[in-house]
Design brief:
By secondary structure, the protein is an all-alpha fold. The chain contains 3 helices and no strands. It has one domain. The protein starts with 5 loop residues before the first helix and ends with a helix. Keywords: Membrane, Transmembrane, Transmembrane helix.
Length: about 80
């Protein structure tokens, strides 16, 4: 069952990834802190795998959308359990 289309999902991928990257700066996290780099790394990873997912907003159709969703869930678990 699709809750949102892959088109909307793609737009949200990039928007949320950019927000995740910006959060440490917006919230004034200490320079070099683990919290800061976990968020930045997660945002960069999300943009990276989004660019190669088989959907409308990628530059190369390398990974299937179902695997992309697994990466999204993994990223969410990482963020929920990180410092």
């Amino acid at each position: 069952m699709k809750i949102i289309t892959t088109n909307i999902h793609g737009i949200l991928d990039y928007a949320v990834a950019l927000l995740i990257i910006a959060l440490p700066f917006l919230l004034n996290f200490p320079a070099g802190s683990a919290e800061k780099w976990v968020l930045i790394g997660s945002g960069i990873a999300t943009i990276s795998y989004s660019l190669v997912t088989q959907y409308e907003h990628s530059i190369a159709d390398v990974i299937p959308f179902s695997f992309h969703l697994i990466l999204d869930i993994s990223s969410a678990i990482l963020l929920a359990t990180s410092p």
